[in-house]
Write a structure and sequence with these properties.
Elements: H1 5-12, E1 30-35, E2 44-50, H2 60-71, E3 77-84, H3 97-103
Helix pairs in contact: 1-2
């Protein structure tokens, strides 16, 4: 079975924001998961485009490292590239309903 974007996004839910205690997918921090074409050995490169809750987020390096580790957890993955972008800027509307409920945002 081929590696899918949904599988990678599910793995990224293991990455928890240490300040908000919610995973980065439900927070809406993951914008793009792109799985490259298979290489000769059948493995793929994965590109993740994500953002942070603020440009000076102190947990940024931890979140990027966690994202890279989670996406690398599949044997089908060769290399993971994590790109942090600030456009569009993150806002609370990007969170899932479950995340907003956990934070008491209605």
């Amino acid at each position: 079975m081929a590696l899918t974007e949904d599988q990678v996004r599910e793995a990224l839910k293991q990455v928890i924001d240490p300040e908000l205690y919610i995973n980065i997918v439900d927070l809406g921090l993951v914008y793009v998961v792109n799985i490259g074409e298979p290489k000769e050995d059948g493995r793929h490169d994965v590109h993740v485009k994500m953002t942070l809750t603020s440009p000076m987020c102190p947990a940024g390096p931890q979140l990027v490292a966690g994202t890279k580790a989670a996406a690398s957890s599949f044997p089908e993955v060769d290399q993971v590239n994590v790109q942090v972008v600030m456009d569009p800027p993150w806002n609370q509307e990007m969170m899932t309903e479950d995340a907003r409920d956990q934070l008491g945002i209605f």
